[in-house]
Write a structure and sequence with these properties.
Layout (H helix, E strand, L loop, with lengths): L6 E5 L4 H12 L3 E6 L5 H8 L3 E5 L5 H12 L4 E6 L19 H26 L10 E6 L12 H20 L5 E8 L5 H4 L3 H9 L10 H13 L7 E4 L9
Parallel strand pairs: 1-2, 1-4, 2-3, 4-5, 5-6, 6-7
Helix pairs in contact: 1-8, 3-4, 4-5
The structure holds nicotinamide-adenine-dinucleotide.
The site of nicotinamide-adenine-dinucleotide (NAD) has 27 residues, from α1 and α6.
Length: about 250
């Protein structure tokens, strides 16, 4: 799929991996709707990207709100691709320090945002793309975001690891399901990427994280995620696959 001249939606587009992806799409001549929470810096982010970017306020966990954001995206033209970066974690242990059961609310919050939010992005995004004229047999492409926690969740990530593993599990099924519609689905499982999500950590903790990556021994750059996300959009033969982007990192238990 050509980025140039086509319209893409990027959820979580106001920050981090989503903003980096939107930046690459704009640089390649595409148009982008940054879908993010109304409370985000979406307006400022879109302004930085110029006239081919719009902020579309929306919550991926809410059908009506996310649908309205997709309407804004489609005001730019037919939606050809969706890169779904909205998500985050919230620490939960099975038992807390006193031996009390971990919070079911925090478990549910993270599943709802990351896993159900991804299905929402898939189903509402695909419904729009399925109406497109096929170009070389292709109507659209969707990139989801898991995490290496899907494979090596750390202590405290029981909810996040479950949600991200669910996204990995959905990827092949969704690609098979949407194959007859000419819509591809792939997932990126990032390692430790230097976004605002990590910027909140102490410097010595950031240095420790960087040292744990075999090669290159540093945090990943948001543009490295964006590079892969835009490659997936462009490469018509990539489908149904989860790709780790992690410098060969394998997370330790804690
Ligand atoms: N940064 C990393 O190291 C890393 C590693 C693995 C996976 N990830 C995943 O990558 C994705 C993006 O992370 P990031 O580092 O760019 O984080 P970030 O916090 O910089 O950006 C996430 C964006 O998602 C938005 N968002 C949150 N809830 C939303 C909702 N309900 N509806 C719409 N938007 C919502 C936030 O407002 C924010 O702008 C997340 O799914 C995260 O789990 C990140």
């Amino acid at each position: 799929m050509e980025l140039n001249g086509n319209v893409f939606a990027v959820t979580g587009g106001a920050s981090g991996l989503g903003f980096a992806t939107a930046t690459r799409v704009i640089e390649a001549g595409g148009k982008v709707a940054l879908i993010d929470l109304p409370t985000s810096d979406g307006d400022a982010a879109a302004a930085k990207l110029g006239e081919n970017a719009v902020f579309a306020a929306g919550d991926v966990t809410d059908e009506n709100s996310f649908g309205a954001a997709l309407d804004v995206a489609e005001s730019l033209g037919p939606l050809k691709g969706l890169v779904h970066c909205a998500g985050s974690g919230r620490r939960v242990r099975v038992l807390d320090k006193e031996g009390n059961p971990g919070s079911i609310d925090d478990f549910e919050f993270v599943i709802k945002l990351n896993l159900i939010g991804s299905f929402q992005a898939l189903r509402l995004g695909a419904a729009r793309m399925a109406k497109n004229e096929a170009v070389d047999g292709e109507r659209g492409a969707i990139v989801l975001t898991a995490s290496v926690a899907a494979f090596e969740g750390q202590i405290g990530q029981v909810n996040y690891a479950a949600a991200k593993a669910g996204i990995v599990g959905m990827t092949l099924v969704a690609a098979r399901d949407l194959g007859s519609r000419g819509i591809r689905v792939c997932t990126i499982a990032p390692g430790i990427i230097d976004t605002p999500l990590l910027g909140r950590l102490r410097e010595d903790i950031r240095e420790g994280l960087a040292a744990s990556v075999p090669n290159p021994q540093r945090l990943g750059r948001p543009d490295e995620y964006a590079h892969l996300a835009t490659h997936i959009l462009e490469n018509a033969y990539l489908n149904g696959e989860t790709i780790r982007l992690d410098g060969a990192l394998r997370m330790a238990p804690r």
